[in-house]
Amino acid sequence: MPGEGPPSGTIPGWACEGPGAGGKNRRVCHAAARLEMGSLWEEFNRLGTEMIVTKAGRRMFPTFQVKLSGLDPSADYVLLMDFIPLDDKRYRYAFHSSSWLVAGRADPAAPGRVHFHPDSPAKGAQWMRQIVSFDKLKLTNNLLDDNGHIILNSMHRYQPRFHVVLVDPRRDSERFAHENFKSFSFPETQFMAVTAYQNHRITQLKIASNPFAKGFRDGEPEPCVYVGAKPRAGPYPLPPLRPASFSSAASTFGYGQQ
Question: What residues contact residue 251 under an 8 Å CB cut-off, 6+ apart?
């Protein structure tokens, strides 16, 4: 039986998205994820969240964190994230009206990558025991990045996605790849990728709410940030543990290894 399951029905703060339970492996169909720091994400979302991308890579703030429920405690799971464009547009910020305006068609898609949680794979019991944090993930605008960071285009809008992938021990597990995962997305985590904050209210909120930015409260802000990219064939970092499982998980979402 799965572990303490997710709430049934629609409950604020929980996501049970993706293709749903129909046709899904019983070890993933009951999975649910609750976004942590939801009120902070909502506060940023009301202003229009911006995330910094740099050549060296920057962590995301707020950090993407979830509390999982409904996994099989004894089964192994890989957790990963990717980022998809919200539209086919490029934007610019109008300071006189404090709003984002469409500046043209989107730039060519950046190389697609996924970010595996470094503790993957792990038992369902371990994942459900504590909050899952993607605080190691970094965003970059460097198309030639060789550090495994998520590559994004500046001045484009993105939606983070979170995936729970069952490690299927069957020899022909690739045949069942579509049954062995469940995806989650939270609209309040959408953001604009930028190289410098455009909205001064975002700058103020980042400094006020990011504990790592206290050294910048009286000077230039430099809060942490997080990133991702469009799902398409491209390089992705494979953790050293059980590479076959990770390769299978990545290929499920349309990513390949170069």
Answer: 174, 177
